[in-house]
Amino acid sequence: MSPAFATAAAAAAPTHGFLSPTGVEVAFLLVGLATFGAALVTVTTRQLVHAALWLVATLGGLAVEYLLLTAEFIAWMQVLIYVGSVVVLLLFGLMLTKAPIGRSPDADSGNRLAALTVAVAAAAALVWVVVDAFRTTWIDLDGAASGSTKVTGASLFQNWVLPFEALSVLLLAALVGAIVLSRKAKADAANTGASAQAAPGSRSEKEGVR
Amino acid sequence: MHLAYPAVLSALLFCTGLYGVLARRNAILVLMSVELMLNAVNLNLVAFDVWLSRTARETLHSGQALTLFTIAIAAAEIGIGLAIILAVYRNRGTSDIDRLRDTAEGHDGDTPAAEKAEATA
Description:
The complex is a heterodimer of chains A (210) and B (121). Chain A has 210 residues and is an all-alpha fold. Chain A is 75% helix and 0% strand. In chain A, helix 2 (23-44) runs antiparallel to helix 3 (48-68) and helix 3 runs antiparallel to helix 4 (72-96). The radius of gyration of chain A is 25 Å and the shape is globular. The model of chain B is unreliable at 109-114 (pLDDT under 50). Chain B has four helices and no strands. Chain B is mostly helical and 121 residues long. The longest helix of chain B has 31 residues, at 62-92. In chain B, 51% of the residues are buried. Chain B has helices spanning 4-23, 27-55, 62-92, 110-120. In chain B, helix 1 (4-23) packs antiparallel against helix 2. The termini of chain B are far apart. The interface between A and B is large, with 104 and 83 residues. Chain A: It is found in: Cell membrane.
């Protein structure tokens, strides 16, 4: 019993170690570094459109991480929904609010130091706790993919049907809510006349009316 | 793969998003940072789901189902958030959240005076 255990441990030891990382771990580490760098540029750049484009890099890197974790369906959903639609919506929002092209000096507010302190403290605490908790835990990535479309679809429509349908109702509510919000703004603009169309100047005029 | 890799990356991304939410001034940039935080949570959910489905033979795949739900809810949140920001921009002419202080406490005396000065200028 004990020689078998010893050989099993000896066989398992080289595959589970920090000093001999597997190819998947190296790839995960490199893509993770790129993703984290892109996220840092996203929250620190002064050019608003560049922030949206670096967000594309971050979300695409996360999709690659999902692929490395064998969650294929989530990865393609990430590419389709986040990179495809959410970033386009954000870019539309930036254009519609007349975001300045080029550097804008007031992209960051005055409490950057406090924000940096809070973020660094939270990062240190979280990383310490997580590394301490999962020091001896390994994910076994061999075998069949645990997140293929077949597996995910089967579990979604066997065990998660009711939340799935509730989610469709939520999406419908969000759609109707967005339409109502923009229609109401249009009605207000029509009531107050053409002065609301000149958006940057209309603030002072409205304040004066008030 | 060591479980600490995705967990640490997720924690770092979450704190990056936290910094963005606290330090950014444009409301759309704050929404981007919220997206970063949601994606960090998604990475955690996927990593722990893969781990549990292998070690504990968990077949419910709750992590991946919750990730799909989070992605859908984030899409709805972005739509509603952008509609609100556009409505605020049409009314006020700015999407700068430092200047939207109508419901702030403690500045009752000076805020109307400052806005009147802005309106007359």
